[in-house]
Write a structure and sequence with these properties.
TIM Barrel, zinc ion binding, Metal_Hydrolase, binds guanine, 2 domains, Urease, subunit C, domain 1, binds zinc ion, alpha/beta
Length: 445
């Protein structure tokens, strides 16, 4: 509890519902001069400045952001690998060779807790520098890598879901657990971290090819025993991967059916990629309340394909769809850069993603995919105080281009097409300023 509420004023964009199913008119809120008040971790007031000013607490001090700013709910990343931060931008391979040649050798280093902590610090700092206030994170097979991430996230007060990778075959021996040790270590981490403050545990079988039948069964048992934990894995990212799953699980009716068979398709299950899922598989995703994490910079970088978002956001068969950076196959921590790639992935499928639909995906849409839309992803009283403040004129080119924009939608599209970390001027976690582009400001707060 603090003595003083945090009060910020400036232009606000937020969403009250899903524009893909209910239209922008009914769901997008743009308020050119708004006040957001936060106290004790939560948003306590939000509205047009003229309406909120008279009811501000007597001791309130207002932080004014200019007309060239944009205040939004913090961005949410539904799929990211913190241990891959040191190997972002590894050249030249598609998924399976990339895992063998770059990813596994890097992840071996995380038996060292001090190394894990140092990377977790850089990872969370980069999240804040990019306005990402929540994420669903893969750690490594080593439990100490999970401790390292959660300890740092707790220090910052971030809402983070994360888990120990389960993998017991088809990778270097030192990276493998067993069905029993994977289960036991996950169980202990759940007891230690799940629902501790803003932290949640994610049961994390890496993907079908690196888990035996016995391990997938154990993952299913963990899911049954902990229905409010997340389940995260990868599915149908790459054609060679899909062919490999067919060889490893000939008895199953496709890739997603492997997970469905072990009861891993469920609410709070988040499947990375899903580029090549069939209509029948998308129907299973819809029916089971599972979600897809769309990771466009990764999909382009690994040459995996162009995810067709129009197939998952169909009104008659809605599949919860979040946005993910999927770093280190993803090539940027910037959510703006990630939305730029999401636009291009949609373009390749003949679908034109509007700027406001894209911002919905990066905030409330991903919160919905994670069953968190009652806590994060929008600005309203009672929601948690996670906020990003963008600068809409962050580079000489953007500033120049902004002279010619005719409406807010266009200004927003310019940001997601040309903007990056330089556009993030401030990030608030639980109502407290945790990052500012102006170094003097963070020190003072
Ligand atoms: N599939 C299995 N593991 C991984 C990973 O670390 N990154 C990506 N992009 N796909 C995977
Ligand atoms: Zn991934």
């Amino acid at each position: 509890t603090h003595q003083r509420p945090t009060v910020i004023r400036g232009p606000v964009l937020t969403f009250t519902g899903n524009p893909f199913t209910h239209g922008l008119e009914r769901t997008a809120v743009y308020e050119p001069d708004a006040i957001v008040t936060m106290a004790n971790g939560l948003i306590t007031d939000f509205g047009p400045a003229q309406r909120v000013l008279p009811r501000l607490p007597a001791n309130a001090e207002i932080k004014n952001y200019s007309k060239d700013s944009l205040i939004s709910a913090g961005f949410i990343d539904s799929h990211v690998h913190f241990p891959q931060t040191p190997m972002i931008a590894a050249h030249g391979e598609q998924l399976l060779d990339w895992l063998t040649n770059y990813t596994y050798p890097t992840e071996l280093k995380y038996s060292d807790k001090d190394f894990a902590r140092s990377v977790a610090q850089v990872f969370l700092r980069e999240n804040l520098r990019n306005g990402i206030t929540s994420a669903c994170v893969y750690c490594t097979v080593y439990p100490q890598s999970v401790d390292a991430l959660f300890e740092e996230a707790e220090r910052l007060g971030m809402r983070i879901a994360a888990g120990k990778v389960l993998m017991d075959r088809n990778a270097p021996a030192a990276l493998l657990d067993t069905p029993k040790s994977g289960y036991d270590h996950s169980k202990a981490l759940i007891a230690k971290w799940h629902n501790r403050g803003r932290l949640s545990y994610a049961i994390t079988p890496r993907f079908a090819p690196t888990s035996s039948h016995e391990q997938l069964e154990a993952a299913g048992a963990l899911c049954r025993e902990h229905p409010d934990c997340y389940l995260q894995t990868h599915v149908s990212e790459n054609k060679s991967e899909i062919a490999w799953v067919k060889e490893l699980f000939p008895e199953r009716d496709g890739y997603l059916d492997v997970y469905d068979h072990y009861a891993l398709c469920r609410p709070r299950a988040i499947f990375g990629h899903g580029i090549h899922l069939t209509d029948d598989e998308l129907q299973v995703m819809h029916r089971t309340g599972s979600a897809i994490a769309h990771c466009p910079t990764s999909n382009f970088f690994l040459g995996s394909g162009a995810f067709n978002i129009a197939r998952t956001l169909r009104e008659d068969r809605l599949v919860r769809t979040g946005i993910g950076t999927d770093l280190g196959a993803g090539t940027s921590f910037s959510m703006l850069t990630t939305l730029n790639s999401a636009y291009k992935a949609a373009q390749l499928n003949g679908y034109s993603l509007s700027a406001r639909h894209a911002y919905y995906l990066a905030t409330r849409g991903t919160a919905h995919a994670m069953y968190l839309e009652d806590k994060i992803g929008s600005i309203a009283p009672g929601m948690e105080g996670d906020i990003v403040v963008l600068d809409m004129k962050s580079t000489p080119l953007i500033k120049y281009r902004m002279q010619f924009v005719e409406d807010f939608e266009e200004a927003l599209f310019v940001q997601m097409t040309l903007g990056d970390d330089r556009a993030v001027q401030a990030t608030y976690i639980g109502g407290e300023l945790k990052y500012s582009r102006d170094p003097a400001e963070v020190r003072a707060s």
